[in-house]
Amino acid sequence: MANVSVFNMQGNEVEKMELNDAVFGVEVNENLVHMAVVAQLANMRQGTQKAKTRSEVSGGGRKPWRQKGTGHARQGSIRAPQWVGGGVVFAPTPRDYSVSMNKKEKRAALKSALTSRVEAGKLIVLDELKLENVKTKDFAAVLKALNLDKALVVLDSMDQNVILSARNIPSVKTTQINTLNVYDIMKYSTVVVTKKAVSNIEEVYA
């Protein structure tokens, strides 16, 4: 089992902690991690774009002028794509961009992402993360003590003081166990997890 240091909010090491290899010590499957990221980004797309083709715009029911003898190029409808107000060629239509992955693949991808952070030394465990008031300044002080810049903070519960204090820092995102995902783990350079959250993750995914 991998041993990691547990820090307090002042950035001091207080103890060592063993991580469960079933979650934090698996063989990293880069293909599954890539699939999970692609799926999440694809599922975020709304797919609601729409433009009208020549069959959907109004007007243009008759030929604008006769075929021959006018000196103009021949035209069949004023709603053809080359006319102002005409339809769009190959216009976008609403579609579903979603990509599916089965549960085993999702779990394996998440474990691979967490393991990659442990192997890179980019997983920091805190004994606890508690703030008495909603203050961005106080949360920033914790980040500075841990020498962090871009971080994903995984909480064991909905702590409004921490969540609201971190909200105004653009390089930080807070999440809980039930919303933890591969994309966020890979996007942020460091993953900060509370000691209790580590136990919850191991309980859910081991």
Task: Supply database-style keywords.
about 210 residues; alpha/beta; six-stranded mixed β-sheet; 7 helices; 6 strands; elongated
Short structural summary:
The protein is α/β, with parallel strands linked by helices.
Can you describe this structure?
With 206 residues, this protein is of the alpha/beta class. It contains seven helices and six strands; from the N terminus they run ββαααβαβαβαβα. Strands 2-1-3-6-4-5 form a six-stranded mixed sheet. Helix 2 crosses helix 3 and helix 4 crosses helix 5. The two termini are 13 Å apart.
Shape summary: elongated
- Please describe the biggest sheet, giving its number of strands, its sense, and whether it closes into a barrel: 6 strands, mixed
Low-pLDDT runs of 5+ residues are none
List the strand order in the largest sheet. Answer: 2-1-3-6-4-5
| Structural class based on helices, strands and sheet pairing | alpha/beta
Give, in order, the helices and strands: EEHHHEHEHEHEH
Helix content: 25-40%
Give the C-alpha Rg. Answer: 27 Å
Average residue-wise pLDDT: 91
Count of individual helical segments: 7
Task: Count the beta strands.
Answer: 6
- Please give the alpha-carbon distance between the first and last residues: 13 Å
Strand fraction equals 5-15%
